[in-house]
Amino acid sequence: TFGDARIIEIGTEYFIDLIKKRNIVVVAGFQGCDIKGNITTLGRGGSDTTAVAIASALKADLCEIYTDVDGIYSADPNICEKARKINKISYDEMLNMASLGAKVLQIRSVGFAKKYNVPIHVRSSFTEEEGTMVVNEDAGMESLIVSAVTHDKDQARITLKKVHDQPGVAAKIFSPIAEAGIIVDMIIQNTRAQGQTDLTFTVPKKDFQAAMKIERKVADEIGAVDVLGDKNIAKVSVVGVGMKNHSGVASIMFNTLSRENINIIMISTSEIRISCIIEEKYTELAVRVLHTAFGLDDQD
Fold first, then answer.
1. Which residue range is the domain that position 72 belongs to?
2. With a threshold of 0.70, does the pTM exceed it?
3. 132 three-state secondary structure
4. Which residue, of 28, 187, 217, 218, has the fewest CB within 10 Å?
5. pLDDT, averaged in runs of 10, over the chain (300 residues)
6. Which residues contact 101 (CB under 8 A, 6 or more apart)?
């Protein structure tokens, strides 16, 4: 769409000509034009994506992103006072953090940087301090099993009760959600007796009512007994490339939450990430205790 355009080409001739003449080139981010000359915008994170795309097209050694913080932190400093600045982080870790609620870089810009191997330096607009380098993974990054703890309160869950456990049912549940442009995050299916199952999934809070309306209609069509919804949830995650070669990360996470009487509602994992859905009221506590449990607290 015009409000969420994708970059297909960057004309560099004009840039290069100006740079050769020792000009400082200032380019407005977030915007471009289609093949017919119509103005388009790049959507959320478009300015960062513009910077990374231009750096890639010009084969620059580095893309510096100046922002209101001095780098990427091991947790949100607003809720975890012992969060520390990360000096170096991999593209994959940053992609996971961006998708899991970290706000410093948008996922599109990081994906672009990874695809074209553009190192990003995230630093403050207000100080001369070094920030955080986002680069390809290297062996030195595995010194920490977990690099960061993230949280995302923009979560809601929907459960279809006693769905018939047979081929094609999942497609009937999720196809209309996709057609409505609603992004589904986590999905869990629990097998029950008599060939029936409960199916639970999460969506952004803003899409909760629309998704509930869709699924109530779907439930009638597929014979589900009920549709339940809950907006009072949040997702907490631990991220780190060091998890690839270490066991016990899930055990530490689950035991840490258990000691604080925080119930885990849903779980999702990947090679370098574990995410848990919990009650929203425990978000800040969960972030702080997990940050401590994985040895991330700033000792200064």
1. 13-139
2. yes
3. strand
4. 28
5. 63 82 82 72 72 87 90 93 92 88 81 91 91 80 79 96 90 96 92 83 96 96 93 96 85 97 95 95 98 87
6. 150, 151, 152, 153, 154, 235, 237
